[in-house]
Specification:
This protein is about 40% helix and about 25% strand. The chain has about 525 residues and is of the alpha+beta class. The protein folds into three domains: about 1-80 and about 195-390, BirA Bifunctional Protein, domain 2, CATH 3.30.930; about 85-195, 2-Layer Sandwich (Herpes Virus-1); about 395-510, Rossmann fold, CATH 3.40.50.800. The strands form seven sheets. Strands 3-9-10-16-13-12-11 form a seven-stranded mixed β-sheet. Strands 20-19-21-22-23 form a five-stranded mixed β-sheet, sandwiched between helices. The protein has a three-stranded antiparallel β-sheet with strand order 5-4-6.
Length: about 525
Amino acid sequence: MANQEDIFKNIISHSKEYGFIFQSSEIYDGLSAVYDYGQMGVELKKNLREYWWKSMVQMHENIVGIDTAIFMHPTTWKASGHIDAFNDPLIDNKDSKKRYRADVLVEEYLSKIEAKIQKEVDKAKERFAESFNEATFRSTNSRVIENQTKIETINTRFKNALDKNELTEVRQIIIDCEIVCPISGSKNWTDVRQFNLMFSTSMGSVSEDASTIYLRPETAQGIFVNFLNVQKSGRMKIPFGIAQTGKAFRNEIVARQFIFRMREFEQMEMQFFVRPGTEKEWYNYWKETRMKWHNSLGLGETNYRFHNHIKLAHYANAACDIEFKFPFGFKELEGIHSRTDFDLKAHEQYSGKKLQYFDSELNQNYVPYVVETSVGLDRLFLAVISKAYTEEKLEDGTTRVTLNLPPFLAPIKVAVFPLIKKDNLPEKAHEIMNLLKYDNACIYDEKDTIGKRYRRQDAIGTPFCVTIDHQSLEDNAVTLRYRDTMQQERVNINALAQIIEDKVSFKKQLSLL
């Protein structure tokens, strides 16, 4: 059986071969950590974005959407703290000359200890079967307690070092944990230093008059600076939310794991404005709501978990991540943060404009508190395609590679095939294409055997294939083939649209939330 690393390589290769993701500027040997979405990838990405948007904006009467510019006044980033505090702690290995994020090195070290704990739990679960109580085992087993204590001690020490910006202590933790460079295997580390992640550029007609501006590192600030515009023009009453999707840019030094960590990526964020004092209640509400949304994708509930932040950002009083089990382990997929009133107050201070809300129930003005949900669209794409990728051994000894994508997300919903390229079968197939294409993304294919055509559609995740044969011209029926089961049934052409709609509609999916 292939290990996770091999499977991940296969996913990357499959993504290129079938038009999902290409390396950016590949003919010039590519640009590191920048990727392009191909003809299939752009459809899957669009469907994910649309499902998020409909569930977040369309299904909530008190949430609206906006689309703000990538360029913003540079003082925005001073106010938000990004110019002074948007840094990663970096460390180099002197032997391999490779650069790493210090926090990631420590995180990966702690993950190995967590894996040891999980191994103990799994062994005990197998041994005691139905009588096994995991909570009791975790709180009483000496090896588990020892490892858990080790994790908590390092976490506390690391959090304190980051909070106080004690970079010498950060390096010392790496040394004390005996963390080695994955390339050289040595512990020959440089000092740790902070590196700002923002891309800067110039705005102006001539270089002498140009001012430094930044490519936005997040989409949230565009929402905050438009808080009053949206509230007044939309006559919004607290609690209410503002949602936005769009590109963000970070000069990641350690960019890796395919599209998991990129320099240009897309975020889907919603800032929910609430009355001060109610933020923890709303924070818990959005934690539950967002986890329910992720589970609705059908990727398996055991593949998600909450992870509370070791170090809170300067603006937060509570923060957690929804982590997903990627082929390379559990990693952050979405962040949920209680941002307090930091952002609006900071923009008030730097702009000199009041960003307050008059609460008619309380008969007073106040700066609202904010609860944020922020999911990376590219990471979500990777999560979906990672879990969908399946290598299946068939009864005849052949292997089929399938993307078992949720049908409502699939790039192509229906593939239409004439059995052969003559006898009026292509014309009938195009008739059916014209019947279905207004509601569904369809593809027409008449090349190769039916078996090969089925395999091509399995590989891109198409849930339905429709084959037109000679009998179709007589009885107005076609063969409908299902991707996941490979089962086929004879269906009247007039019933096709409804059968497909029942499986691929957003409406049905949204009603489950």
